[in-house]
Amino acid sequence: MLTAFTAGLMSVFTPMGLLAILGGVLCGIFVGVMPGLSSVMGMSIMLPVALAMDGNMGVLMMLGIFCGAIYGGSITAIMINTPGTANSAATCLDGYPMAHKYHQPGRAISISTTASTFGGLFSALMLLWTSPILSSFALKFSAQESFALALFGISVVASISSENVLKGIMGALIGLLLATVGVDTTTGAYRFTFDTVYLTGGISNIPVLIGLFAFSQGLINVADNFGKHRDKVSQKLERILPTKEDLVTIFPTLIRSSVIGTIIGAIPGTGGDIASWVGYNEAKRWSKHPEKFGDGAPDGIAAPEAANNAISGGALIPLLSLSIPGDACTAIMLGALMMLGITPGPLLMSESPDKVYMIVIGLFFANVFMGICGFGGIKIFARISSVPEIILTPLIFVFCFVGTFAVNHTVQDIYLMIVCGILGFFLIKMQFSIPPIILGMILGGILEKNFRRALVLSNGDWTTFLTRPISCVFIIIAILSLFYPFVLPMLKKRKAQKAEAKNHD
Question: How far is CA 499 from the centre of its chain?
Fold first, then answer.
């Protein structure tokens, strides 16, 4: 393990490695401070750039974007009461009053930066601690277990990431259908290629990712926000670093929220928005002065920021160990890792421990750079948040076209991206969830490959998935995760009827 750790450290601690992380962090913060952009959009747009780099450097840059975008949303939330990302929605409650009611924007942003950095570093250390534990678990996996895991990952995201469970399942099925396009690697048969050479190699992930996440969001910005003016940032940042009194006040909240964020991040189907609200509510519940929350309380800023940044390390635990992304960002991260030659899963720790440690150490340094860039560039990032939509939206479209074409240098990819973008626009308007589609597409190949391998190894015996304990457990959990959202309303209704009948008696 020491050798693997050293190899991972040497991969990160190079001029190009550190520069890749720094560049990713800056891009992420830039995306985060822009209302209308999101961490998902930033990662999808920058994915072609990562693929053009050396494998390790591309991974490190994506980690930087992941961390930077989560933090960047807090600046916009504090300065103009508009969360740059959904993760920072809870920060508006106390961040904006502190900045404008009490005229302390510098103090609010400094608390946010401190909490974000602390939460990210805490989760990175937790990921480092859990990584060796996962290696012993990895040796028990075969084709049956890999199939069950892929099925579990798709079922969890489909059932949780959409308000309408049926729409989530339909999205996952769309993704699985897209994964079948191309030549069958087992039989050599052509599937859904429509006699075109372009589709024989399957559908490229990059145009689909950029189209569904970035191009569709650009269309939504045009439809919903074009012509609207944002409030200008006029507040003067009087102070950048937090005071000793603020640090002492928020320290218990930092610990509590970091633990909450790491745990929630490790649960598939959750995300930073859930973590931030849970962290905020717990801080208010444990506070000696809960009445101050919503009126510029320091803990009200520190709690959501520490929690939503702590998900970065927590979300990588199921991603690296089980190939299960917890949200849209980690779904893109999964696709990026696979395209860069790193296949997350139970065998990753045993076969490529140096890659795991490289990711863990890279995440740690990404949070360090995030803190440095945050404190050093607060004034600049605060001004970026006031860029008008009339400039921002065309830039989104330009990045989409350039990024899509840069990967394979084919116009067909651009056409596919546009089609996926228009499809994503209507799906979002109809309240469909996009992550299940992407996850179905990414995990579809793994699902099919291991399903066939398992049947070959068992001579066509379908019961092989149920006779192996780990595989059976994951299949049962997958089934329960799909049916639980349907059963839960029925149970609540029955409980309410019993309570009503008891009251009548």
Answer: 40
Beta bridge partners of 191: 182
Q: Closest Cα to residue 50, out of 68, 69, 34, 63?
A: 63
Q: How many C-beta atoms surround the C-beta of residue 53 within 10 A?
A: 17
Structure tokens at 142: 């075969």
Residue 492 CB: number of other CB atoms within 10 A? Answer: 10
Rounded-to-integer distance, Cα 381 and Cα 261, Å: 25
Residue 501 falls within a domain, yes or no? no
The tokens describing 176, both together, are 């699985």
Q: What is the pLDDT of residues 124-158, one digit of tens each?
A: 888 888 766 665 665 566 788 878 877 877 776 66
- Return the DSSP state at 35: B
Residue 504 domain-assigned (yes or no): no
How distant, in Å, are the alpha carbons of 102, 115, 236, 392, 492 from that of 240?
A: 16, 14, 11, 27, 49
Residues 276/305, Cβ–Cβ less than 8 Å: yes
> Each residue of 159-193: pLDDT tens digit?
555 567 788 888 888 888 988 898 887 777 888 88
321 vs 140: CA distance, rounded Å: 12
Q: Are 127 and 377 in contact (CB under 8 A)?
A: no
Structure tokens at 477: 């959990």
Residue 505 belongs to a domain = no
The reported pTM is 0.70
Classify residue 290 by its DSSP letter. Answer: G
- 502: in domain: no
The CA-CA-CA angle for residues 313, 316, 322, to 5°, reads 150
Which domain, by its residues, includes 211?
2-235+244-496
Asked if residue 485 has pLDDT above 80, the reply is no
Q: Radius of gyration over alpha carbons of the chain, in Å?
A: 23
CA 178 from centroid of its chain's CA atoms: 22
State the Cα–Cα distance between residues 471 and 145, nearest whole angstrom: 5
Q: Round to whole Å and give the CA distance between 160 and 361.
A: 30
Cα(448)–Cα(69) distance, integer angstroms: 34
- Looking at the structure of the chain, the number of domains it has is 1
SS (H, E, C) 320-388: HHHCCCCCHHHHHHHHHHHHCCCCCCCCHHHHCHHHHHHHHHHHHHHHHHHHHHHHHCHHHHHHHCCCC
